[in-house]
Fold:
Amino acid sequence: QRLSKRYRAQLRSVWKSFGLRFDEVMTTEITAEKIDQWLRGNQWKWRTQNNYRTDLCTLFAWGIEAGFMTMNPAEAVAVRAKPSDEHGDDGGDIAFLSAEQCERLLMRAAKATEGALRRDLRGVWVPVDKHAEDYRLLVPALVIGLFAGLRPEREIGKMTWRSVSIEDRIVIVTMGRAKTRQRRTIDLSDNAVDWLKWCKAQGMGATADEPILPKNFVRKWKRLREVCGLFKGWPHDGVRHTFATMHMALHKSEDLLQTALGHHDSALIYANYRGLTTPSEAARFWGLMPQVTNFL
Structure:
C-alpha cells in the first residue's frame, strides 16, 4: 500500500508475466538461471531486461521479508550491458541534457519576461507584449530536478517548500511523495543552494505550504522547452537522467547516486550512468550559478 499506483501497476504487470511462466514452481526452487532464461527468452531489449530484473528483486525481497524464502535469486542475475551495435534511445545509452542546454533552460526561465519591458502608468516594469510568458516560477522545480534528481510531476509536483531546507542544504522526499514510497534525504549542491536563494529573493516559497510547482506547470514547461529549442527530441526523464549522469561523472560513486535516486540496485546505476559524459562537462554543469546581471 506504500507504493504509488503507477509503480504498483508496473510491478503487478511484471510479476504476473513471471508468475504465468513459473506458476507451478515453488519460490525456493526459482534460481538465478531460471530468471535469466526467462528474461532472455522473451526477446526484450537489454534495458527492459534490467528493469524487469529490478522488479523481480523487489518481489523476492518482499518474499524474504514475509518469510517465504531466504535468498533473493534475482540479485544473482547479471545486469545486461548495452550491445556495442546498438545506438540511440531505443536500446542505446540513456539520453541526457548537456551543460549548455541546462544553462539555456535556467537562464531563459530566470528572465523576468519574454521580450522588451516598458514602464506602465504606475511606474512598474511590464512586458511590451501582454502575451509574453514569465517562466520564473518554473525555476525551483527545474533546479530541484536538475541538481537533486527528483521527478518533476511525480515527486516535485507533490511537494511544498516545507520539503526544502536551504539552511541545512537538503531536500526531503517523504514516503507519500516518492515513487517507491521510501523516504529519502538528498543533499543540495552549492549551485542548487544559490539558485534556491535566488528563488527566495524573487518571492517564491514565502510560506512553507506553498507548492513548488506553479499552476499550469505542464503548459509552461512545454512552452519553455519550445522557446529554448529543446522540445523536439526531448529525452525521456531528461531532467532526472541529466542529474544522474552528471552526478556519476563528478562523484564516481554508484552508492551515493543510488541513495540520491532512491534505487534498490547499484548495479543498474553502474550499467546505465557510468562514463556517459566527461568530468569537465560535469564540472560545467555543477558550476551553473545564477548570474543576476543576465536576467535584467
